Structures
1.
Amino acid sequence: MKYRTYSLAIPLLSLVLSACMVGEAYIPEEDDLPPPMSEAALSNNGRTAFNYFVAKGLTQIQAAGIVGNLMQESSLMPTAVQPGGPGRGVAQWSVGGRFNTGSKSLTAFANARGLNKWALSTQLDFIWYELATVGGYGLSELRAATTINTAVTVFQNKYEICGACAQGKRVQYANEALAQFGTTSGGGTGTGTGGGTTPDTSCYSGTLEKDVPENTCVESMFDGLWYQCSDGEWVDRWSDPEACIAQYPL
């Protein structure tokens, strides 16, 4: 199921109506809602996530299996909010659970590191933290996966632990991710490892409506702030030490 995103500017009434439409009414607190959209929110999140997990040592097939799941969960939007429910972020962690409760929640993880829990980079780091450090979420089984079907199923059952999973859509999205971002030969359900490529470090600019190369700097039409493309994702312009190769003011 796809979930839309909310910002703090959405009236409370619309949240109440959404909550009434799906299951038990749930009115989130202010801290449970994402901030307004920025340039970074419109980057190519699928490619960023794919490259992230390949850089962590997973094969392209395994990384695509994760991306396919996250696409089904949230369209890979870190500010995704489940209408009328507790799901938050790219993996739809639950409010009252892995999103904000306990020392191993996303909120605790972000706060301990001074990070924004609504940022894609933070949420990808948290997924890897749960997989590699917390444990019990299927990393060993995922690393053993050699086909898209297996990679999708492992992450779906061990990490997402979803109810109505729509596995066919997850597999479809995973195959699309592998085709778009990887260079594996033989198709998405083959047995190749899909490694050995250099990740794409370009970024998609919602302001310019096109992909731009690394170290391009853009003043965002969404929040008026400057962003720089760094390693395939948008970062605050002044946090990156590299010089801009091109600048696009409003």
Note: The mean pLDDT is 80.
2.
Amino acid sequence: MAFFPKPAAGSWTENWPELGTAPVDYTDSIDPEHWKLEQQAIFRKTWLHLGRVELLPKTGSYFTREMPSVGPGTSIIVNKDGDGTIRAFYNMCRHRGNKLVWNDFPGEEVSGSCRQFVCKYHAWRYDLKGDLTFIQQEGEFFDVEKADYPLKPVRCEVWEGFIFVNFDDDAEPLVDYLGEFGEGLKGYPFHEMTEHYSYRSKVKANWKLFIDAFTEFYHAPILHMKQAEKEEAEKLAKFGFEALAYDLKGDHSMVSSWGGMSPPKDINMVKPIEQILHSGLFGPWDRPDIKGVLPDELPPAINPGRHKTWGTDSFEFFPNWTLLFWAPGWYLTYNYWPTGVDSHVFEADLYFVPPKNLRQRLSQELAAVTFKEYAFQDANTLEATQTQIGTRAVTEFPLCDQEILLRHLHMTAHQYVDRYKASLAHTNGVHAAATDEKEASRV
């Protein structure tokens, strides 16, 4: 028996019949050739989240990002120019292709501020707009005009203070890509939450497996049982998990969940450290004194059913960005950057309103370290999953109604790959026809 209402179709999954209810084939998470297709079809074609505008606080601020998910060796510079525009460029000098911005080790990401970018190799210089301004011994070159050799740009757009890039010059604008969810989240006070904690970890599992783990809470009462007091843990395990609601909008999806009572109804439900610091996985119990976080102030996409028991909403923006809101008034983001078919880099960033006193600071720190413990538990199962599905002893797995977003993720990823393969076939067919026509004209 369902604890919360389900759609008239009978289940969340059947509400979107295109998803089907059959077991899902996980070959897409173990096939090296499929991963190469994902790299071209997905990560070179979609908007990719890099971080917040606060990373670039002033004119000349910059950071670099290594992006093997897009292609081997791919590196970009993201900077703020004199007009306040945030730009992105390939991190490559136009002279002989040397990496332009790096410190001691070429593969490490760096950040800082500058007035211009100067190549270590031959001192070619570029301004903050990417224009070439100086060529060492310019007179030694042949018919070289500086205006013809700017840094190669990468499309860069900002939504609600979040920086995105796209390596496809023909891709739709970012705001259109984010669609209804993006529109429905506008106005949340992201700019007020500048207290920032971050984690990065290398995970020996396919990038989709970690997204799978965070898009379903079906596992939480079992896998994370030891994080709660014994009596409460047993109660949660018996209850299981059901979401308040799920929604799918094109390539993107969301789950709305109960929980996160701040403070809990019974103080004995939580551990002593949480009782002392008034915090835990769901964040500090005391909601920050800012506009936009009270239940009746939230943007329409958050807690869309306006449930009184609402605790958290998780939005999955394809391909690899999670934006998760908590009822007590803070949020976090995840990114999953594939580095191979069975490996990726996981990034988590937590954002709070800056603390006003020591107690608030400690409450936020407890939330951050508690989150890390949960993430470690999830990551541990992922590597165990990857090794076993890699044997191909079994390749198809049944998913329950609370795992609907997993179905959607794998279906969407397959659709991108299928469209890419179709475009390649069409292009190859056109080239073959042109070649045949050319050969025929010679006869």
Note: Residues 51-170 form a domain with the Rieske Iron-sulfur Protein fold (CATH 2.102.10.10).
3.
Amino acid sequence: MRAVQITEYGDPSVLTITDVTLPAPGNGQVLVDVRAAALNPLDIKLRSGAAHSLYPCARARPPGL
């Protein structure tokens, strides 16, 4: 599946679209097909580095909490 990930702080150009492994649901879990997702103001602050003390960007991660 494709996912948008943040790998470093910066403007929107630091967002990358990557292929990631489709997660396998465990017992009692379901896999949901997400077609669209929203971002909130905290996502923008995390991407820009303005909130790095709350959530350091030590590894690639998708936007959203």
Note: The two ends are 19 Å apart (CA to CA).
